[in-house]
UniProtKB/TrEMBL annotation:
InterPro entries: Calcineurin-like_PHP, Metallo-depent_PP-like, Metallophosphoesterase_sf. Keywords: Membrane, Transmembrane, Transmembrane helix. It comes from the Bacteria. This is Metallophosphoesterase. SUPFAM superfamilies: Metallo-dependent phosphatases (SSF56300). Pfam families: Metallophos. Residues 158-323 form the Calcineurin-like phosphoesterase domain. The chain crosses the membrane at residues 6-23, 35-54, 60-85, 114-132.
């Protein structure tokens, strides 16, 4: 529920500013008092939700998270717009020595404020609709990878479906599981990899609404493998591991697997765990008979990329970043991570960082995409 604390901070700043300056967008008297009253009531509601979140019913908590977080994301755009409008008004006065009210007259000035108010409301609605649509319609990206090592089991081709950051929660539920099942059936992969942050916080929502039964229908021939993300360590790890087993997944925590004898999977624990094994230690665990197989590393966070080539990694898959999920956070994420999203080559190794399938907080994305990735692996040495 960290997201509620973050949104509380955003709303505390944003709403107080709108109470101070935004109220001037409507006439004095009843209209202005009503607008400010609604804004302050919303802030009070956020405080109550944060304080009583553990006592709320599941349905009420879901509604509260959607409402609180959605409004907070809208504030990220509305407050700068209000600042821009107010700054323009002050700049006009400074340049001309005359206020806009004096220039336009009271009637036209008031009409202009009403227009700006309703335009702002319309923009808010459009932001919400666009954000939820982006999260609800995952993109499918496809990449062809030419391997320098031969695939095992006399294979010439291996199709891998990679998805990260499911974030099952009060707001990411059955519809997202159903869409993932549809994408699985459409792509028909040989192998599926899940790159961590399966759960947003608590595991309980992932057990509801027949989500396990839906996920159990994802049965690629060579299996479905999972690694842990930082969100898995936030609560009830035992129940989260039990869910992965329930849906037919195999969890790799600093361990090796060779599904179908085709490739070597290296599943690393999350970067936040100080006791996790180094990549070279994991390479040392590869059985002798699997040493010549292509090596696919998958873990949650795109860190320590410099160690890929020296350990003979043929494909590295990551998640975690969400590509920022909400603009302008995407700019910060892209500045922080060497690879925030996409498929590229780093230190001679093909690397892919997913923008994620689900979302942290409400099921909303603004100017980023929800996605799954399909990799068609071919061996050039045969």
């Amino acid at each position: 529920m960290h997201v509620l604390l973050y949104t509380l901070f955003i709303q505390l700043i944003g709403i107080l500013y709108l109470v101070w300056r935004g109220g001037q967008a409507v006439p004095r008297g009843w209209w202005r008092r009503s607008l400010r009253g609604v804004l302050l009531a919303d802030l009070l509601f956020v405080l109550v939700v944060v304080l009583l979140r553990h006592q709320l019913s599941s349905d009420l908590l879901t509604f509260s998270i959607v409402f609180v977080c959605s409004w907070a994301f809208v504030l990220l755009y509305i407050v700068p717009l209000a600042l821009l409008i107010n700054g323009g008004r002050l700049l006009y006065k400074r340049i001309t020595g005359q206020t806009l009210r004096a220039r336009l007259g009271d009637t036209v000035y008031q009409r202009a404020k009403w227009v700006l108010f309703f335009v702002t409301v319309a923009i808010s609605a459009l932001i919400l609709m666009y954000g939820y649509q982006q999260a609800a319609t995952p993109h499918m990206v496809e990449h062809k990878v030419e391997l320098t090592k031969p695939l095992g089991a006399d294979r010439e081709h291996l199709r891998v479906l990679f998805v990260s950051d499911l974030h099952f929660s009060e707001t990411i539920g059955r519809p997202f599981a159903e869409r993932l099942l549809e994408l699985y059936k459409k792509t028909e992969p040989d192998l599926m990899l899940v790159g961590g942050d399966i759960f947003d916080y608590y595991p309980d929502p992932a057990y509801l609404d027949s989500i396990p039964e839906i996920m159990q229908q994802i049965t690629p021939p060579l299996g479905c493998y999972y690694v842990l993300g930082n969100h898995e360590y936030r609560s009830d790890m035992a129940k989260k591991k039990a869910w992965i087993k329930l849906v037919g997944g195999t969890l790799l925590v600093d361990s090796i697997a060779t599904p179908g004898g085709a490739v070597t999977l290296i599943g690393r624990d999350d970067y936040t765990q100080s006791e996790r094994a180094s990549l070279s230690e994991l390479i040392g665990q590869i059985p002798q008979e699997s040493q010549q197989l292509p090596r696919i590393l998958f873990e949650h966070q795109p860190r320590q990329l410099y160690s890929l080539a020296s350990n003979g990694i043929d494909l590295a898959l990551y998640g975690h970043t969400h590509d920022g999920q909400i603009f302008p956070f995407s700019l910060l994420v892209r500045a922080y991570y060497p690879i925030a999203h996409g498929f590229t080559e780093r230190y001679g190794t093909p690397v892919y960082v997913s923008s994620g399938y689900g979302a942290a907080g409400p099921a909303m994305r603004l100017f980023t995409n929800s996605e799954v990735a399909v990799f068609d692996l071919y061996s050039t040495s045969k």
